Records
---
Amino acid sequence: MPYDESVPPTRRRRSLLATTALAAVCLSAAGCGAGDVGAGAPARPGPGGDAAASPSARPSDPPSKSAPAPERTSPSPTRSTPPAGGNSGPLSGKTVVIDPGHNPDNHLHTREINRQVDIGTTHKECDTTGTSTDAGYAEARFTLDVSHRLRTLLRAQGAKVVLTYDGDRPYGPCVDERARIGNQARADAVVSVHADGSAVGNRGFHVILPGPVRSGAADTTKIVDPSRDLGTRIAGLFVRATGSAPSNYTGGNTGLDVRKDLGGLNLSTVPKVFIECGNMRDPKDAALLTSSGWRQKAAQGIADGISSYLNG
């Protein structure tokens, strides 16, 4: 879930522009909503087609030691710095910042992550714990795993890749610092990786786009349009890579959702989006999110969307 979300998203009118743009990308990517998430049945819209998400679960305690461990094939994060991307390839000269949502140890630092930070429009918590599957697989572990896979794919295309953190911090970083890392890197694109914590039956992915905000330290005027382009491409190519359908509970089945309440977007001065890869609280989505094979597909879909955007 977005790490600076303190209230559930509200209902929004379906955007004709978002729908048209995503449809165009999806047609070239073998079609959106071609099946149930990873399975083949149409996505099921909520009431009115764009029902708001249920309040997300945010466990504050560490997962139970008796919970079954999901399969893990990627190496544990270390403090060492991996080799930089190559100098040649289609993304040579491009900088991409990957923002793994939350931190596995945030629950051990509740005082620090509850500290309020300025997001331009208001103040919010520095960070949150995120959600988890019922079996105890934490969102923060998922996001770091997918981010590592995504980094490998982008570096293979010659991109310079920066992570906002890489298992090298006791908590956080705070949402304002996450945005600042992308800004200071002068990133050509920033993607924040998440998984949602909604109600059972709510399935599918959605990409969160920045809305027009101009208040205090926040000014998204210059990034709204390029961020929409980035997010639309990621949404369409995520469908092709994973077989997942757009969310059936937010975004009106477009796979896109506009938010003005997320500090990570409000404070960004470079094109940036969030992607909620699925709903950890739904058992069918959870089965995908805990699969290393599916996580590789998710990373591929995100990488394809970023590459499409950066290559014009």
Note: The CA atoms of residues 289 and 295 lie 6 Å apart.
---
Amino acid sequence: MQCPLLYRFRVIDRLPEKPSEAATRGTLVHAVLERLFDDPAVERTAPKARAMIPGQWDRLLETKPELTELFSGDAEGERLTRWLGEAEQLVERWFSLEDPTRLEPAERELFVETELESGLRLRGVIDRIDVAPTGEVRIVDYKTGKAPRPEYAEGALFQMKFYALVIWRLKNLVPRRLQLVYLGSGDVLTYDPVEADLERVERKLLALWEAIREATESGEWRPRPTKLCGWCDHRAVCPEFGGTPPVYPLSVRPAESAEDVQGRMGPVRAEAGQPVAVEGP
């Protein structure tokens, strides 16, 4: 949805990408907010959460040693100290948005997967699921950036509706609420979905997958320039910046002729004045 060519670089070519400070900070904050619920409710305090950050950072480095590249050349540790301080601010802001002493999540960092009737398989990882005593489900996702402007809220909610669709198809239960917690700006965006919403998301996903399938077979992955291009690791091989993509690693289907695209004509039997349904190509 963001850029078809970027999808190709990441999923098909699997070009390497450098870790970023922002994305890694998000991973660190998520880890702290997940692990905080291991403690009894009365111990879930802001000072306790802040104190967890250095240990969780060390744990991240153990699993992903390449993250040390983020602060190469920082001999005095000033950049790292400032970066860890920014993570502390995000964690502390969360306490002004939610009260963890009153929450007992049913699931944290939950991997979910389901297969639609079409055969399309969906999977993802949900930050947190809360279940009320009445059985109502709330899906919560933490964002370490700022909340989008209202005109862009629908795009932000797409991920949440995706998760809601997976839960609906898995459990035959429509989540009561979808909640995005923006730690960067201190905003909380909520949405209460209905079945019609999730049916629309399913149709959109099927259309997206069809577009992906066709692009995979044809090799036509077009760039979609936006302001986000400045953050892309693949500008050197992107035509929009004068680059040349690597050789496409998959076999390519020959393009259809114009006649095939337009359709077919042949003898049709019908009563005068009656409409005729014709199967498309």
Note: DSSP finds seven helices and five strands in the chain.
---
Amino acid sequence: MSLWLNALGASVRFHDVDGVRTRCLEAGEGPAVLLLHGIGGHVEAYAKNVVPLARRYRVIAVDMLGHGMTDKPDGDYMLPDYAAHILALMDTLGIARAHIVGESLGSWVAYWMIQAAPSRVLSWTCCVGAGLQVDGFDNLRSPGVAELRKRSSQASAAPTRDSIRARLEWLFHEPGRFVSDELVETRLRFWSNPDMLRIQPMIAGIMDPERGGQFYITAERLERVATPTYFLWTEFNPTTPWQAAETASRHVRGSRLDIMPNCGHWPQYEDPDGFHQRLLGFLDSVAVGADCTPAS
């Protein structure tokens, strides 16, 4: 099914966020749920999710700073920059508090939103999240992120259908089922944009341990998190194994952990029904004030 057939019923809107034109895919009413993509990503990563989740929530998938069709100003593109942009977007949309669902880099951004403005984050869903440094595991020095750096560098240096497809396919447990020509073409359009080529080295800088390492989500930092937290992982995530997420979850009091089978780095795309069932169970428990205890 086409990306945009999945998204029928949602609206594409552009918002002026402190001078940064920001693209969002939006639907629904009620408590706000913001969906944040991974590094190099865009709202199409959530094409299968916005409308189903919008049956119970106001759902907003965001092209983060410099990504997709959002403006690409010069800057450092470090975690505080992304977090400030999303918090400013919330101000623009009149959203006082929101559930933040982040995949990969998006989850890392969500954590730094908690650091900047904890009262504004109703819950944090850390979906195959980046930036963990817990009990001997170092995300930015892991073999998975080394491979992601290599494929990202190849695709950004020479954005072709083949280089973009190779990077996308690596993310999925069953790439033949999910990496369509439409998805490849969509990302190729974004990554071929001259402005994207200009800022790509800054975006990639977050994967450098010397630059990104100052923003690690360490065990000590996790132990200070008071926000309801959900570690939603996968059996075959290529960047951070589920065992590291299990370790991280033990450092956040009252957190929940789930591991989705037969998925790689985009569980929301690979198994949307399973993703929705698990995520809605967590969000609904937060909404009614239920105790978010670890899954058995």
Note: Confidence is low (pLDDT under 50) at residues 290-296.
